[in-house]
Backbone:
């Protein structure tokens, strides 16, 4: 009987535990995780001060537009539509 010198059978290879030799596929080294944390941008005070809050935007829109204007423009549009309908 000739013995194989360089190859092994499936049963022989299953006796050795390769899990310690190769890292798991979905785990990343700790150093990569730490580098990603440091690469994220931190919000500066200047960036925060440049942002407007929703209340600031709404109050500025209210001061720009008088309260009667949207209603009057709707009324004008309705009159235009009704006059076009009467023509036909």
Residues:
């Amino acid at each position: 009987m000739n013995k194989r010198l360089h190859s092994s059978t499936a049963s022989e290879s299953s006796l050795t535990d390769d899990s310690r030799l190769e890292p798991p596929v979905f785990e990343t080294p700790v150093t990569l995780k730490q580098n990603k944390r440091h690469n994220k941008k931190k919000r500066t005070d200047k960036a925060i001060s440049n942002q407007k809050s929703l209340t600031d935007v709404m109050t500025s829109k209210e001061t720009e537009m008088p309260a009667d204007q949207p209603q009057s423009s709707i009324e004008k549009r309705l009159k235009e539509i009704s006059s076009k309908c009467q023509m036909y």
In short: The chain has a mean pLDDT of 68.
